[in-house]
Every structure is written in structure tokens, then in C-alpha cells.
Write the C-alpha cells for this entry.
Amino acid sequence: MSVNTKKIIKNAYRVAKERGKTALRIRVPGGHMETKHFALINEIARKYGDGTAHITTRQGFELPGIDFDKIPDINRMIRPLIASLGLDMETGAAGYPAAGTRNICACIGNRVCPFGNDDTTGFAQELERVVYPNNLHFKIAITGCPNDCIKSVMNDFGIICTIEPLYDESRCISCSACVDNCAKAVTHALSMKDFSVVRDPDACIGCGECIRKCPTEAMTRSATKSYRMVIMGRTGKKNPRIARTFIKWGDKASMIRIIQNTYDFVDRHIDRSLEKEHIGYIVDRVGYQTFKEEVLKDVKLNDKARVAEHIDWNGYHYKSDASLK
């Protein structure tokens, strides 16, 4: 049968290796969903697919082995899955309306993990409602602490939930538990001076380890949540690289607004002669300073937020392989 591949890809189906077959991609924002939906996923896989499901690297599901002519039937079936995204849009019989912006990933966060500084699931779902549906190719990940279990540094936007430790000297017993742990496991941001703890704000990454180690609650959590945004990390064939810090100690509203502004930035600067252009390459082409100026427009950063003046991405260039013997 004749198939419009661009249309089915936009509809969240994969062009598969096996001729005449496709795979349905199911969005699971934050990697979290109600288990009642498993029955529907199982039904689609068994009735229309090959009876299997693949859990993707972006925390969604792919159901392979589907015939192209079954897409309309499946699109009607998956209405509850689309509705579960909590989006303000019609959940008709047409299936997913876009697939460009990839499923927003998140670690399990502070709903379960003792290291988590925020509810990453809730944040991912909130962000999903803001940015989806969209056909621009964005990859976004949220991690609950600087351990970065979700590998946010490999995404276009990585949001790292941080916490500013507050120090009450009157409760401190000068045990050095926080200082020793920071030196061994983190960034050596703490030191002892005259029996008191001194924090280097430039070295502190807001992990909260000092708070967890303090036996007297001399270190406590700030009531204000904060976030570090890292940008333009990527894998791929051309120039894979780790994301670098764009903003430190920012607030949630700013994180969301910056991502929204970046959609407009990409729409203005993307090279439309190409089949697609990755956002990181657009930033490389137009320059970091232009990117920074445009995405920070109308963003009201909090007083403690710090923005990188310059970013020098390195990455891995495959041409260096020529030196290998």
C-alpha cells in the first residue's frame, strides 16, 4: 500500500525495517503513568502488533509489528493515552498530533528518591502541557539532583533540580560531617573556619548532600526551589557532546519560559533547506550570544540566578579517528 511516511512519523509511528510494518510510539511524560493504561497497551500489542513492547531510552513505549492499514483503528483506541497527558486539546480519532518534541524524560525525583530535590514527575508533566504538541525536534530531560541519573547533560535542555543549603551556626557542633562528605563525594564547596562551616557559592552545585549529612539540622533546605539549566548536549553522528551550564540557581518559571522562547528562536533561524536541523547546530551556526539574547527576552530571572557569559562546547569530532592505528 502507498504510505505517506512524513505523515505517519508526525503521527508518532516509526518507519520500520520490515516492509509494510510500523511501530507506535507512546508518550509517557516524566516516565510516569497510571498502570491502568498497561491493559490498553497490552491489547494493542497483542491485537495489532507482534505481542511485544519496547521501553525506549526516552521512557516511552514502542509497539512494533503493526500493519499500516491498522493505524486508524489504533488511533481511535489510544484516545485514553492521549487524554492522560493532561493536554488542553481535542483527543479525537487522529492519534498523536505531533512527534517532533520527544518525550520529556525525568528521574523518579523526590516522590521516592531521598536524593531528589524536587518532584521531577510533576515538573515534566507541567512542561509537557506547555510545549506539546510541537513538530520541532527538541529533547528535554529533568533530573532530581546533580547525580543526574536521567543523563540530562545529553539533551538539548537538561534541568537539574538543586537546593540552596541554609546554615544555622547556632546549631552547628563543628563535627565536619558536611565538610568531609562534600570533599569526598561532591565538589569541596565547604570548609571549616574558626569552628564554623564556610560555603563557596561558586563551587556549590546545590546537591543537598550537606543537608542530608548534618546530625543537628544546622544545614537545612531553602524554602525556595532552584534549578540549573544545561543546554545543547547531544549524541549523534556529527559532533556528540555534553551539555554545559547556561543558568545556575534559576527558578521554575524562568526554565519554562526559556524553553518556550527557544521554540521561537528555532523557528526564526532554522535552515529550511535541510530535511531537519538539530537545535544545537542552529546555536553553533548563529552563535551563543544571539541565542542567549533571544531566549532570555522577557524572562524575569530571580536575583540569585547566574547566566553563563560564554559557553565553549567541545564535544567529540570523529575526524580525530584518523589518528588511530
